[in-house]
Amino acid sequence: MSGPLGDSQSSDDAITRKFNATNAKRIALLVVIALIAYHGVLHLTYGIKSCKWLLSDGSFHGFGDYSVWQPYGCMIHTYNKIDSRMCLRYIAYWGGKNHIVFLGDSRIRQLYYAFIKTCVPNENLINTAYPAHHDLEYKERDLKLDVRFLWHPVVNESMTKVFTQWLSLQVSERPNLIVMGSATHSIKSSNASVKALEYYRKNLTLLMPSLDKLSASSKILWALQDPVSSEKLDVGRVMITNEQIDAYNKAAMEILKYSNSNNVHIWSSARLVAQGYASDLSNPNEDGLHTNNKALNFAAQILFNMYCNDQMNYNDGTCCSDPEIMTTLQIIVFIVFTLFIVIATVILIHRKYFARKSYKWHLLVNEELDELTDNNNPRVLNTEIKSYSELMICLAKIALIMFYFFLCDRTNFFMKENKYFTRPNFFLPIAYVFALGLFFTEESSHTIVLHRDQTDELKGWMQMIILAYHYTGASQVLTIYMHIRVLVTTYLFLSGFGHFTYFWQTGDISFHRLWKVIFRINLLVVCLCLVMNRPYQFYYFVPLISFWYLVIYTTFYAIPHVTAASAEANPIQYLYMVLKFVVLFSIVTILYMSEVFFEKIFLTRPWKALFVTTDDSIKEWWFRWKIDRYSVPAGMLFAFGYHLLKKHHIIDDNHHGYLFSRGIGFIVAIASFAGIMMYVIFTMMCRNKPECNEIHPYISFIPIVSYIILRNISGLLRVRHSTFFARIGKISLELFICQYHIWLAADTHGILVLVPSYPVLNVVITSFIFICIAHEIHKVTQKMVKYAIPSDWRYTTRNIIIFLLFLIPIGIKDGMF
User: Fold this and answer.
1) Could you give the CA distance from residue 603 to residue 609 in angstroms, rounded to a whole number?
2) Given 290, 446, 483, 643, which residue is catalytic?
């Protein structure tokens, strides 16, 4: 075709050929390799420990009530009194000590008070009756806790003597943490003279050998001085300027950087925190010199994260925390995965370098193959070789992806940061994505209610909202939490609708179909359980939909078998289907009303390990099951009612017109809109999560059915769909599971940081890689289904037996057998 239109079309085709899923995944692979190289250089330069980052750098995220301090590259846990005392008790229980010393001026005394307020059960126990310039001490014998403040406001011989005394003591009697700092007293007493600064520099240099020697048994932090609010200083302190403080801080950094010990640290992040709150009107400094309480609380949190994280292993506290130790099972799995990669590499090399041999060599190979085959047909053997090659390449791809998962979330190689919530952070990305989704719309070839394009679209935009919800930590807002609960319920509702429709229309209740669906749903999660050392229940959504699929299958498999064809031939079978629904809803209600009966069923071996967490608790499964206990049955019932209405011509969706007559359609539309608004009002009226969760199962179907009716009542709306959301919806299950470790981090408690210091770019890069991996897993899973669950029942049985034998050692480990 010639002309402008033809040139434009050929240009579009060229762009489409270049920017496809395959090329996108190639780009993602190159980006991952580049990021691995970049972070490798960072670790070679600065080390792999995140304590240095915690103590040196960070920034504020959010604003107002949602403002939080984010250390550079690692996650900070918020220690309350219970957490802090648990940490101190844990250290004391294992023979350690909690001997902590704060040494310096009045600002260090503030840190002392902030630290003990975080761990003291009753603040009245803190003795504040001492004079200002006096040593302080707080002790608790059962925690082996001895926290002291030593008043040494100037770096001089008296400070050196303290270190000399500590060095004369036995190692067990020395402090295990020393927080020190000094400057403002020297500035004030010398009227900011240059000689005082030189005296400070000289004495700190003389103190360095003692610091290095003591650091063999103690961790030492030199806290840089916080800025002052000059306009609030009284007349006796006006010489303490920020220029003077900066000069003293610079001198301290120049001297301490030559320390020969890894246990002597310059603590600069506390200064950055105080600087961020210097002009905070809600937390004003009382005198312009001392740090306000909010900054002190953040500083105390930094100290506890440094001191406790490696002991407590909180999921949201990765700063100063070593990664998990690999288990024997993980090592075995990685060895097997490595073999897959090696074999696949050999196959690819063979294809590339040996497939271009001469025709004579090709004939020779075919003759040898003829001798190896009983039927003298080398094509059969060639086909089998190609099949096994494709299977091995699929396994190698899974192995490489699992290595990336492990690198992201079971090591400290890539950085992690805490989530922080603000309403703009949650709603603006959703608005952008919805604008993009509405831009890419087209007409579907289907006209029926909840056709495949429509359900994929629905799953797609719901998944995008859920991802934004998890990424920003929006669960703290009750209204948002309850709307997300509806989206999760909708997934289960659609699962019930879709599987019921398939069984009802096809009557296919074969075991081949059963295992095919179970394999497709569970492949990724089983691999993650083995690689990431997490129980099956950790990925709660997959156990949930797997369980409910088995329930749907059992409902149809139970005698009498009822399908659309059998019911058409014998209308009494409609009654049998209704009775099955009555039994199903009754069993679900009985299980909910008797938690003891529920536990007896699901805590029975050998399937107990599928429903408990690592601490052998079934509470997580109980919560997930009961909150959406009626969702799948409701979806099944909706599908049954929908097919009955179609059969009796009450609704007609085989054309592009309305489902109902104009008058009935108007009434139904108003009722549906009212149903959605009713649920919105409910989410705004309920007061707490337990109360909302208790009511949710009984009314969650209302907004779902209302949306489905509004989406399908008009033929124009029914056939239009967003191709962007539909493509996302096709991989929604993979997106939901993959987000745990390669988009979020620390088992969803934080976010993965591949590009530090550039949050927007980091979201773009991590999201691009995340979506490409989810798409590849979806594609590989579809290929592997035909090998794992072949159409021949004998091979399927063989594979299931091999899989069960493979699970025996895992089952013994987890207490299944």
Assistant:
1) 8
2) 290
Looking at residue 335, its pLDDT comes to 95
What pLDDT does 5 receive?
Answer: 46
Rounded CA separation 573/564 (Å): 9
Residue position matching structure tokens 């390799």: 33
Distance CA 650, CA 660 (A): 8
The two tokens of residue 486 are 């509806």
* CA separation for the pair 246, 252 (Å, rounded): 10
In the prediction, which pLDDT does 360 show?
Answer: 44
Contacts of 257 (CB under 8 A, 6+ apart): 266
Residues 6+ apart with CB under 8 A from 414: 35, 39, 407, 408, 745, 752, 753, 754
Share of the chain above pLDDT 90, in %: 65
CB 697 within 8 A of CB 627: yes
The distance in angstroms from the start CA to the end CA of the chain is: 69
CA distance 452 to 502: 12
**What domains can you pick out in the chain, each with its CATH number?**
59-312 (3.40.50.1110), 419-814 (no CATH)
What's the per-residue H, E or C state across 674-715? HHHHHHHHHHHHCCCHHHHHHHHHHHCHHHHHHHHHHHHCCH
Residue with tokens 């302190």: 237
pLDDT tens digit sequence for 331-367: 999 999 999 999 999 988 887 776 555 444 444 444 5
Contact present, 772 and 781 (Cβ < 8 Å)? no
Where the chain has pLDDT below 70, the residues are 1-19, 62-66, 124-131, 278-286, 354-384, 806-817
Active site (annotated) includes residue 106: yes
Determine the pLDDT at residue 51.
Answer: 87
Position 536 scores a pLDDT of 92
Catalytic residue check, 290: yes
Q: Could you please report the per-residue DSSP string of 364-412?
A: HHHHHHHHH-TTS-HHHHHHHHHHHHHHHHHHHHHHHHHHHHHHHHSSS
Active-site residue, selected from the candidate residues 59, 106, 229, 767: 106
* Nearest-angstrom CA–CA distance, 362 and 381: 14
Instruction: Judge whether 767 and 743 are in contact, CB under 8 Å.
Output: yes
Which DSSP helix (H) or strand (E) runs through 444?
A: none
Distances (CA, A) of 799 to 141, 535, 792: 60, 23, 11
For residue 719 the two structure tokens come to 């056939």
Q: Can you read off the two tokens belonging to residue 177?
A: 């943490």
Take residue 280 and report the two structure tokens written for it: 């905070």
Q: Output Rg (C-alpha) for the chain, integer angstroms.
A: 33
DSSP classification of residue 561: P
Amino acid at 181: G
pLDDT of residue 806: 65
> Active-site residue among 12, 13, 287, 616?
287
- Number of helices (H), then strands (E), in the chain: 32, 13
CA angle 136, 139, 142 (to 5 degrees): 175
Q: How far, rounded to the nearest angstrom, does the alpha carbon of residue 498 sit from its chain's CA centroid?
A: 28
The Cα 713–Cα 660 span in angstroms is 7
Q: What is the pLDDT of residue 358?
A: 43
- Which ranges in 105-225 belong to alpha helices (H)? 106-119, 157-168, 184-189, 194-214
Task: Classify residue 753 as exposed, middle or buried by CB count within 10 Å of its CB (0-12, 13-18, 19+).
Answer: buried
Could you give the CA distance from residue 749 to residue 563 in angstroms, rounded to a whole number?
A: 45
Q: Is 308 left (phi over 0), alpha (psi -120 to 50) or beta?
A: alpha
Residue with tokens 């320390």: 259
Q: So what's the pLDDT on residue 374?
A: 47
Active site residue 287: yes
